[in-house]
Design goal:
Layout lengths: L5 H10 L1 E4 L5 H16 L15 H9 L2 H4 L5 E5 L14 H4 E6 L1 H4 L1 H7 L2 H9 L5 E9 L14 E4 L7 E2 L4 E7 L10 E3 L10 E5 L8 E5 L10 E3 L6 E5 L4 E3 L10 E8 L4 E2 L16 E2 L22 H16 L6 H9 L5
Helix pairs in contact: 2-9, 7-9
Length: about 350
């Protein structure tokens, strides 16, 4: 079972993050990577939509806020690229599969494999053990952290930030990041770093949608304060680890100086009960594409009435997950789509094969 122990819950509440090694099997991780490989093989991004992704504030505003490709990606699967991978005409300078920074922001809604992962019963069990009653998935991303691209030595470092700066709610404390290591994350290839306990001081800045017709399309309110680097704690993890990230904990990652990528699948949950999604957020309801906010489980009933029974069928086993992937892949090869209703039945009732 994936329920958190009392000591794990206490550590998460104290630190604002929690590492769960071995949450996913190596085979499950490989299956997710294989699926992304298939998505990349079908990638077709028009020249005018080839957006270089940045984590630095000024470049964020230019590269993200000024392009409809980014602003309309909240309910789509779209591709964002490292810096310096295009020539002046928008042609690739490196192999396309090595140029990708991330894929976002609705893998959880539109791809059956990543939908299966996001909505798996063991992820649901984590949410229930944290006391969530009506969790919804607000966005998802596949992050590549390519080696030796995006700046000297490797992809640019991700500046210290709080996820709630981008996913702001009233009240605060309603956003949870779920970060899945699909490859080992090391000091050399850019593992995550956290300031333990930094989730208790509120949010220092916010990215908001600019008024209609303005350019760029987003702006920042407030500034990110200078952080004492000595407060950050590295969290190297092995493939298959899951890291829970409180929406207000300060975290970052350094450049990838290694010869290896550091791939991860990540998504964010929001407790919808009694929570207001800020109208200034991106995506903004009524202005941007409707966010793909899917309920983590099928009903609004309380967690106490929906704990899965402690039986062999209570969670999606590694073999059941791999069976689902193989069935989906086989149907794709035969040009026979797997109906979403069938997929959900597999997810909900996977036997312990």
């Amino acid at each position: 079972m994936a329920y958190l122990s009392p000591s794990q819950l206490q550590k998460f509440r104290e630190d604002g993050f929690l590492v769960l090694e071995g949450f996913w099997s190596a085979d499950e991780c490989v299956a997710m990577q294989r699926r992304i490989g298939e998505i990349l093989a079908e990638m077709d991004v028009p020249l005018h939509c080839r957006t270089e992704f940045s984590t630095q504030e000024e470049e964020q505003l230019r590269a993200q806020g000024s392009t409809d490709y980014f602003l309309s990606s909240g309910d789509k699967i779209r591709f964002f690229f490292e810096k310096g991978v295009f020539d002046e005409k928008g042609n690739f300078l490196v192999p396309p599969e090595k140029s990708i920074n991330k894929i976002g922001h609705a893998l959880h809604a539109h791809d059956p494999v990543f939908r299966c992962v996001t909505h798996s019963p063991k992820v649901q069990a984590l949410a229930r053990s944290l006391g969530l009653r009506m969790p919804v998935v607000v966005q998802s991303m596949y992050i590549f952290k390519q080696p030796h691209l995006g700046g000297e030595g490797g992809p640019a470092a991700v500046s210290p930030h709080q996820d709630a700066s981008f996913l702001y709610t009233e009240p605060l404390g309603r956003v949870l990041g779920v970060w899945i290591a699909l490859e080992d994350a090391t000091l050399e290839n850019g593992c995550l770093w956290f300031i333990p306990g930094s989730h208790t001081g509120g949010v220092s800045r916010r990215m908001v949608r600019a008024p209609a017709g303005s350019a760029p399309g987003t702006s920042f309110l407030g500034t990110e304060p200078a952080r004492d680097n000595s407060l950050f704690v590295p969290t190297p993890v092995q493939r298959g680890a899951l890291i829970l990230i409180h929406g207000e904990v300060v975290h970052k990652s350094e450049q990838n100086f290694s010869d290896c990528s550091r791939q991860a699948y990540t998504f964010h949950l929001m407790e919808a009960a009694g929570t207001v999604w800020s109208p200034d957020n991106w995506p903004s309801e009524g202005r941007d594409a409707t966010p793909s906010r899917e309920k983590l489980w099928a009903t609004n009933a309380s967690a106490s009435t929906h704990r899965p029974a402690a039986t062999g069928n209570s969670h999606l086993t590694s073999r059941a997950f791999l069976l689902l992937v193989s069935v989906q892949t086989g149907r794709q090869e035969q040009n026979l789509p797997l109906k979403m209703g069938t997929l959900l039945k597999i997810i909900a009732g996977s036997p312990a094969l």
